[in-house]
Batch of 2 targets.
Target 1
Amino acid sequence: MSTPAFDALKIDDLCPTPSATPIREEFARAVRSGLSKPQRELPSIYLYDEVGTALFEAITKLPEYGLTRADERLLRRYAHQILEHLPPSLIVAELGSGSGRKTRWLLEALTRRQALVYFPIDISASALTKCRQEFADMGSVSLVGLEASYLEGLHAAVSTRRPGQTFLVLFLGSTVGNFERPAADKFLREVRRCLSPGDALLLGCDLEKPVESLFLAYDDPLGVTAAFNLNLLARINRELQGDFVLEQFSHQIRYDKRERRVEMHIRSERRQSVSIRASELTCTFREGETIWTEACHKFCLEEISEMAQHTGFVCRAQWVDHEWPFAESLWIAV
Ligand SMILES: C[S@@+](CC[C@H](N)C(=O)[O-])C[C@H]1O[C@@H](n2cnc3c(N)ncnc32)[C@H](O)[C@@H]1O
């Protein structure tokens, strides 16, 4: 087995037509547009700067946040079963890889049968740095980190396909739950459009569970999730010359029963004005008014199989963790 060199590329290295828009300008525009809506909102993608990425890693280790451990238990227990459904010569691409810690179980099982190219795709440079560290001791994995949005990264990864290769796309951690349900369908259809028949998608989805455990998971007593959420305002202060006074805002969790989702908000504790120079924006918040920062939709098993059908896949198999209800579903592109 050869030992491919470790590698890390920016999207431009694989994609000859990089986006012309500097990321800071996009951020400034997104903040202006989101904070101007009647229900103010900020896109969750901006939670993951260097500080946010480190805080998310800490969240995954909290006793109250069972999601990551459930995802990891399934990958550890069933990596071999999952791979039995797939042909040889796999290339692995992971959407929103984060540190890739859980993915290790799958890649270890896979490298027993082949040398491997692995494309972790993440908008966060520091997540990719952690991911490279995670796999530094696995000589049979050639890692090509793509600092890009999900679809940009996936397009770049599949553009390297050689005849006879099959792509396995990982979308773990119930990150699909961050999309509104119709937007998730649309996104998964886009993923399908990047793939060829026979390619696979392994989708990790958090299942419905009692609201009390969700509240604890997303509002832990240590306040790590609160810090993760409020860091978004700190990031706006740092990068866009905002003047949010963090002490005057708080972390708030809601559960929307009809939509079956946890919502993460930032609540203004008093009436106050905030200016964000790079977004050319001044907002006046009422006391109790919130900024919606993230949605985490919860799923049932049947709807995951239905989602596969709506989006150009067939659900080949599912593995369920009953300790923290969570499902790994293997979809095959038709
Ligand atoms: C909820 S975390 C999940 C991380 C890891 N997959 C896990 O299961 O623990 C989401 C990850 O996706 C990345 N991310 C969020 N939105 C993204 C986007 N639009 N494009 C690419 N990466 C994104 C974040 O930086 C973060 O590392």
Target 2
Amino acid sequence: MYPLDYIDPVFRPPSEARSLILQVTNGCSWNKCTFCEMYTQAQKRFQPKPIEELEKQLIELSQAQYPVRRVFLADGDAMTLSTRRLKEILQLIYRYYPDVQRVSSYCLPRNLKKKSIEELAELRQLGLSLMYVGCESGDDEVLRRVEKGESFESSLGALKKIKAAGMKSSVMILNGLGGTEFSQQHARNSARLMNAAQPDYLSTLVVSFPVGDDRYQENFNGEFVALNQTQLFTEMQWLLEELQLEKTIFRSDHASNYLVLKGVLGKDKQAMLEQVKLALHQPDRIALRQEWQRGL
Ligand SMILES: C[S@@+](CC[C@H](N)C(=O)[O-])C[C@H]1O[C@@H](n2cnc3c(N)ncnc32)[C@H](O)[C@@H]1O
Ligand code: SF4
């Protein structure tokens, strides 16, 4: 771990485990999604970090000869920063680490509203090449109830912009997000969104409520019923069945999942569907994570 002055807690995608996590902002500027408690503690109130502080950190790291090949811009939606500020940050990274191979960030669709494809392409030129987009669902009803502040159309617009700028996208979809009532439409419309967007990477996580589901229940009138293991697998089956992807690396290996799935879609679609069907109908013939092995 790099010895930096973080405001904790800090979250990053699993695939950035070995990257330099540069906390260019603290918290999330939206911070309203009812399932997400990641930045709700008092010290995580949204604020950009001063550029001087970031430069100081990069100087210290480079002087101590910390190797940096990849950089992840934290926290929850660093792409809310202006293009001008993002350019400054990318130029700083390049100044102290000219050999850096990849810079990435979480990105909410709304972060890109005021950024043109040309501006994004400039950021791409400066090294920012991968956006992690928490679409969570392609279903407008579910998105509204979880207060994502996004829709099928806004999510698709952002994913298309990312592609047009020459960047890659990695999308997160949350298994179980609509509960039993909206499970089918959540799966179908999430697949429809992915089919239209053709992201480079897609991962699914299981929604969980480590501090209880009171806040979540409010928009479901207290009637949200979480999916059990079988229902989660059924939802995954619906999602996979509907996915028509050309070349997307699919990962359902986050610690929250009971069943680990990995492959390239469409090539591995049938093989993955077979695994889900095994989990559903012959669970003793397949390795499933036990409850104690799961986490957020
Ligand atoms: C640290 S958040 C930042 C994502 C970014 N702000 C966005 O919305 O695109 C990363 C992801 O964690 C996942 N996440 C957050 N709360 C969760 C929960 N309670 N259960 C499961 N996954 C959760 C969501 O998929 C979210 O997009
Ligand atoms: S999921 Fe993303 S946008 Fe929603 S509150 Fe969490 S960090 Fe913010």
